[in-house]
Amino acid sequence: MIYYTQLxxxxxxxxxxxxxxxxKVLPLLKGHNGELVYRIRxxxxxxxxxxxxxxxxxxxxxxxxxxxxxxYAADPKRLEFIEMKNNSxxxxxxxxxxxx
Length: 100
Hints:
Shape: globular
Number of helices: 4
Largest sheet: 4 strands, antiparallel
Order of helices and strands: EHEEHHHE
CATH class: Alpha Beta
Strand content: 25-35%
Mean pLDDT: 97
């Protein structure tokens, strides 16, 4: 099992478009052996210390393999809505990891 953490930074004023994108694509995870473990929208006071801007959301997802993750990323149904993501997301920091 592979874990992917995403730190998601949203363009100012584009929260609703981002939410609409997520509503469309998150249900597709299961079709690629993926699972949304956590979707966190942390309050600023939840951060004890930071040296960079704070993310709007943090996602932790799992996939059985890198191929499953790649399949989700390339899913034609997901790509139908990719413009919504591109319009609303400033940047994403993606961290790949494994359970120890």
